[in-house]
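pasting for ref
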Amino acid sequence: MLIALTRDVSPAIGDCELTHVPRSRIDVPQARQQHRTYEECLVRLGCQLLPLPAEPSLADAVFIEDTCVVLDEVAVITRPGASSRRSETASVACVLKEYRPLHAIEPPGTIDGGDVLVHGKTIHVGLSTRTNPAAVDQLRQLLHPLGYTVNPVTIRDCLHLKSAATLVAENTLLVNRSWVDVAVFGDLHVIDVDPSEPFGANALAVSGVVLYLEAFPRTRQRLQQAGIEVLPVDLSELSKAEGGVTCCSVIFRR
C-alpha cells in the first residue's frame, strides 16, 4: 500500500521563502481548498492519506517533501537549506519512525527533499541554493551500504532539481533543459517541457498516472501524446509560494 504524508497549509504561508518568483498575495482559504483537492487526487490514485496539521508559525511547512527522503529501507531526515524551515522536520521524524529506521543529515550539510530524484538504486541530488556538497557526501555514506549510487547534479536558475526534472514513467523524465543538463541522467528517455512553460517540469507519478498542474496545458499535451495518463490539478495559490505537485506530499510504500 502507498502512503501519502501531507501537511495542511499554514496561515502564515504569505511569509514563505521565495527564490525565483516574485512575492504576491496568497489566498489562504483557496490554497487550503486546492490542497484538499490535491489530497483527494492522491487518494483517488490509491494512496492512504497520512495528513499532518498545519504548523501556524512555519510558513513553508505544507511543502513537506523537503523534510525527508524515504526509501524502501530507510528514511533520511533532511536539514533544509533555508534556516526558517529546519523546525519542520521534527514532527515528520516522529511520524516516519513508525515506518522506517531513521537517519539525519547533520551540519554543515543542507539538503531539501525537492532536490532528490530517486530512480531505482540511483539517487540524483541537485546542487542548489538549498542543497550543498556536504549533504550529498553524507547521503552517499548513509546509502552506499544499501546499494545506492548518489549522483550530484548541477542545476541553474531554478529552486530544486525537481523544478527542472521529474520522473513521469519508469524510465522517462519530464525536463526543462535550460535548467539541467540531461546528459547526467544517462539513457533515460526525455520529454521536454513546452518552451512557453519553463516551470512545467514538475510532475508527480503515482500508480501509473501523472498528477500535473493545470497551468501547463501545452506540456500536458506532450505527456499525453507520449501515452502518459495525466490527472490535472490546480495549485495556483501554492505555486505563488514556489510550490508544485511533488512538494506537497511524501509518498512511500508501507
